[in-house]
Structure formats: structure tokens, C-alpha cells
Amino acid sequence: MDSNTLTQSWNSVCEQIKTYDGVDPSQVDAFFSRIHPQAMSEGFLMLSADNDFIKFFIERDFLPHIKRALEEQFSVPFTVMLEVDPLSSSNVLPTTETAPAPTAPVTPTPAVTAPQPPSQTQPRTQGFPETEDLLLNPDFYTEEVPQTPQQKSPLPQNNTLSSYTFENFVIGDSNRIPYTMAVTVAEQPGRQAYNPLFIYGRSGLGKTHLLCAMRNYIEETRPELNTIYVNADELVNNYTESALAYDKDKSSYKNFKDLYEDADVLFIDDVQQLQGKKQTLDIVFQIFNTLIHKGKQVVLSADRAPHNIDIDERYYSRFNQGGTFDIQPPELETKLGIIKLYIKDYNQTNPYDTVEIPDDVQLYIAENSGPNIRELKSAVLKIISKIKIEHLTDMTISDVRRELENHFSGGSFRRFTSDDIIDQVKAFYKVSDKDLKSSNRTHNVAFARQVAFFLIKQFTDLTFQDIGKQFNRHHSTVITSVQKIEKLMISDREVSEEIDVLSKMIREG
Description:
Layout: H1 3-18, H2 25-32, E1 35-41, E2 44-49, H3 52-61, H4 63-74, E3 79-84, H5 118-121, H6 176-187, E4 197-200, H7 207-221, E5 227-231, H8 232-244, H9 252-261, E6 265-269, H10 278-293, E7 297-302, H11 313-319, E8 323-326, H12 332-349, H13 359-368, H14 373-390, H15 397-403, H16 418-429, H17 433-436, H18 443-459, H19 464-471, H20 475-491, H21 493-508
Parallel strand pairs: 2-3, 4-7, 4-8, 5-6, 6-7
Antiparallel strand pairs: 1-2
């Protein structure tokens, strides 16, 4: 078959696949731009992929659709082979900020035709990127013991971060370029063109998800590399602890520095928190320069562009020397994709107790939600809670409008502070401020504290670290508490009603 006919036949197959139920045409456009037909004969098609990443996901989620389309068009069953093209231009980092065609997010499917890395492709219990399976831990009311400075580690000690993957990151025009750059760097860490990689955007748009997806992908595909993920706030704390310990342990400072300089890939999240931390900035600058000089990869994130961070010019110019990409608020299609992904993940987690949310209801939620993805997720969680607790078989737009009245933060919706929420929680559960922020772990106090964590996260843009500081808790405790309340809102009518009442009290002041 000549090349023109081969290309035409392949394009026809691609268009046919877009018509199948359950196939997102935008995913076909994104993925299939990275695979190319090489040869075709009766019952046989050879394709080449730009890289292993593309090959893996095509084989896993699209190969049955390719075979089906071929058989429908040519009336014979097909064998399809897919190989990686080592000379593909996508295996070489571009020298400008023009991104190659991106890969699209893929959700887990039962049919697997290629070997799968364990943490990225084995069935997982997960909801939003910020939630994980809690069914194995039924003690919903047990809190972590607050960590002392000596117990802290720059490496994450919970499983939450492992649920962030490229496959459950929903892409759209708002985040396509940073997503593609994250994939590119994860495949080839340490290349000069995008070192450091700097991703920025307002809170709640997926920066942490991308950083952790990169780390998880590298750990699966390049286990020999030493990857370290740390939030800038933790980095400051770790440096402070090493400095305080220096009088007693002269090696503490060196140990701190060596820990990060031994990384092959260093991820620093929320670097805007380094503002005003001159000593920490100086040491980070030294670590940064050492790693870059050794050809190691550095990945940074912030809620603003480097030049808008209030630090010395030499720092932000260094941060900005590689690839700098921003994530914009999600457009309607991306928000719909996030909603569908969450519903699908929930149903995979609960196969014997699934929920259905009509398409028009999903569209209403997407159209009325604000730019913060957390607000979108909390709206979906609220609707699922309503369906589960009241055993509803149908939900109309009118029902959802009543349920989500005043939920979204558009219009004249005022900004809330953590103090606003804490005051209402204290009054509702009749606990004191001292108890709420102490190590008191009695049931009523511990539960009130967890509810406060959840509501502060829902009503404000504070990070888990910021919330933890206010309660003298490690951020992993806050994450776990938020997840517990999310679970209880679905399974426990009383908890769901309490959260609704508290939310109304907070809005009404």
C-alpha cells in the first residue's frame, strides 16, 4: 500500500473510532497525533509510537477500538503491532516553548494488553486527586499523633501522593502545555532545555498533581533514580531544624544539604512560600545550582510566575531559566471531564453500589462551578452524598439547583477566613479554641477538628500545610482528616446533614 493510501486509510480509522460509545474524540486527537502508520496489508497493520509512554496507553486503552474500526472498514480481523520509533522527534526535547502534541488523560479500564507498572495501572481506590482509599482504615475518628520536629521527613509519609498520576489528570486547553511538558520531562529528566521546569497557576488547578504524577512515573519507569518531593514550607522547617541542631550536631547542616543534593530529580512545591526566607533561599540556591551543574532535574511550582515572587532577582531569573508554563482555570470541557472521571472512579471503587448522575446535571455543575477544582469536586461529592443517603433513583436540575444553592463562589460571594470557619465549628460542637488546637483526642474534639479541616479546605484557598500550622498539625494529618469527612458524608446521613448546616452557618455569618 502506498504512503498516501496508507495515510488516508489510517485517518479514516481514526475518525471511525471517534464515533464509538465511551470514546472521547479529544483523547483520540491527542493520542493518535503521536502514533503513525508504517505498513498495512490484509489483516495486518504496523504502527509506530513517539515514545514508550504513548505506546503503553494506546495498547492499554485504544487497541481494541483500533482493531474494531479496521475490521468494520475492511471486513477482516486485524493484527495490530505497535512499536516505539527511536528516531521520533518527540524523543528529543524541543528547543522552544512550543509544546508537542499532548497526551491525554486515560482512566483505568479492565482490558489490558500491555505490561503495567504497579502503582500507575493496577486497580486503585481513588476519587479526586486529593483522595485515596480509606476502606482499609475503618477507624475514621483516629487522628495522627502530631509530629514533633524530629519526626518530620522531607519525603511524603502518606499514600495520598501516589494517587496522582498522568492518567487521572484531565487535560484541556487550560493545562495542555504544562501537562505535555511534565510528560516530556518525566520521560527524559535532566535535559537542559527544560531544567528547571517551572509550573505556576492559582491554587486548586492541579500543580501538585502534575509534580506528583511526574515523580510517580519516574519511580516506576526509572527506579534507579532518586526522586525527592518536598513542599517549600517543609523545606523551610527542615532547614530551621538543622540550623537549630547545629550546636549539638555539627553534621546536621551537611546532612540537610546532602539529602537534597543526592537527588536525581528534586521537586519543590509552592516555592512562593520561600518569600522572606533569605537563609533558606540561599541554601536552596546552592542546592539548585549543584543539581543543575550535575545534570540533575529540578521541578518547581508556585501560585504565581517567578517574576511575581517577592525574592531577589537572581533567584527568580534562575528559576525562570528553563521552561516556565502556567496552568489556567479549567474551561467547561475540562470541568466536565473531571466530573465524569470522579463519578467513574467512585463507581469502580463501589461496584455493587454505583451512582448515576444525568448528563444535564453534570453540565449544570460544570457551568456553575468556579475556577477552583476543589469547589467543583465538593459539589459532585455533595450530589453523590445526596443520592446515596436518600437512595434517590433520579435527580433533576431543579433538585441540584436547590441542593447546591449558595454552594458556588461566584458573584458577590464573600471571601472566608479560617477564623470564620473555626468560630462556627466551635459553636456547633461546643468545643473551646484551646481544645480544638490542642492534642486532645477525645471523640467530640477530634471529630470537630476534622470537620474544621474539611470546611477550611472547602471555603478557603489555604494549603494543607497552612491549615496544619494553625492547629499545630502535620499536613498529612489534615489530608487524612479531609478524606475521612468526605467518606463519612457519603455513608453517614447525620454527618452529611451536619456539614450542610455548618456550611449554611458559615455563609450566613
